[in-house]
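S.,

As promised, the adenosine-5'-diphosphate run. Input:
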Amino acid sequence: MVKICCLGAGYVGGPTMAVIALKCPSIEVVVVDISVSRISAWNSDQLPIYEPGLDDVVKQCRGRNLFFSTDIEKHVSEADIIFVSVNTPTKTRGLGAGKAADLTYWESAARMIANVAKSDKIVVEKSTVPVKTAEAIEKILTHNSKGINFQILSNPEFLAEGTAIQDLFKPDRVLIGGRETPEGRKAVQALKDVYANWVPEDRILTTNLWSAELSKLAANAFLAQRISSVNAISALCEATGANVSEVAYSVGKDTRIGPKFLNSSVGFGGSCFQKDILNLVYICECNGLPEVANYWKQVIKINDYQKSRFVNRVVSSMFNTVAGKKIAVLGFAFKKDTGDTRETPAIDVCKGLLGDKAKISIYDPQVTEDQIQRDLAMNKFDWDHPVHLQPMSPTAVKQVSVTWDAYEATKGAHGICILTEWDEFKSLDYKEIYESMQKPAFIFDGRNVVDPEKLREIGFIVYSIGKPLDPWLKDMPAVA
Ligand code: UDX
Ligand code: UDX
Ligand code: ADP
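Predicted complex:
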């Protein structure tokens, strides 16, 4: 029986291992983590992450061939294949601060594997890491190996949060990179055999190590670039009277371009896009390619521009000040169907509004009050753009309240900002909401979820990203 151990029970490790266990009943899968509370949550009825379909998969396999444990060393030493999906945040200090990946967790994981291994292991790089990390890890492993053979593979994860289970069930592709030696090829084949339990052969791609590592960064950079491209066009739409949805639809009909990932928004968020692009930028700089670095950096700059443009729109529409006004924020997660708030545009938008002394009342169906307060109190690393403001002062903290209901959040508000595209925001009773608000009542839709015409009929002044402007907004000062 093949034994798999996965280091890191997070958004990637948890769902990926659950699906492997489900699809491969003859493989024993143990997910380990240094966090005792995370592991207890995985062993409880209240899983630590919200992901549609995940509960069901875990229920089917947990205790059968899927286990969650904090006994890291035991399971690492027994495993044939070790997946590493520990966190790799952007470095906040030292060399490469603000851009390079922080590999502290990775390095300590590699040293631990080398220490406890008593038999040959395949070590699989699952978390996104800079190109050539595999080489560094290989060195740590082989220099501490006591004669054991380690094969390192890169098997980047392409699942998106909110659709992780579907993405894992039917991946567009599975990518496995390995050394081009007989041992390397054998290791690639062993991992291929695991996926072949449910993924058609022609979707399992094998490459060299560096191609696999770079493909992950490049894929995320391309996806983010599409969003920044359409968001850049959205600003021009507002200035000219074009409608970004019509433009994106027409552009996406070209089969060479395709329709996906062309939704204009208040900006992309999530744990991957910004981090991976910064990583790519850093690698380019280290390789003496400043032009290439600047090209990709621009994708992040437009994303920051989009967030500050949104805040400016809110403030300028409301008579150039939101001081003391209640603003309801609907949605805080970085996208729908997840409770994850990493790099969510809502953080920067809320900080911007608080900077202008607004009182904000936040509702998100999946994000806890604790998480929101932590996110807003955090001092974000300011790489070289101004949008990330200083941490909130104690008075600013009092300006934020979190509710468990959209109607409560919007009661008595001067304006509403929709920052996540949760389905339930489409079917709220906006008439009732309008009645309970201060007048004039504003809606700023950062996700194009509401129908601006219908809301205007109710009486709202509506701003939708990239859509022809409300006559009210046209008369307001120009937005920087
Ligand atoms: C282009 C648009 O495709 C067409 O829709 C528009 O109406 C006019 O402009 P065209 O310039 O004739 O058409 O050729 P196209 O096939 O788009 O190629 C343009 C250039 O890009 C060529 O030099 C081509 O060699 C290059 N190219 C294209 C690449 O370098 N790589 C590619 O993957 C595709
Ligand atoms: C992404 C990649 O899609 C996935 O392949 C990779 O493995 C991890 O990073 P994820 O961050 O979970 O996944 O979500 P994704 O669906 O890509 O959305 C990222 C952000 O872009 C979200 O904030 C989303 O709202 C935004 N987005 C997405 C848009 O603003 N417009 C779009 O058209 C699509
Ligand atoms: P991702 O979105 O990449 O899955 P997460 O932050 O959700 O990232 O998960 C990473 C997990 O890895 C965390 O739960 C963290 O506690 C765990 N972790 C970090 N270092 C180690 C380690 N050396 N061994 C085991 N788990 C680790």
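Residues 132 and 158 are 19 Å apart (CA to CA). The radius of gyration is 24 Å.

- D.
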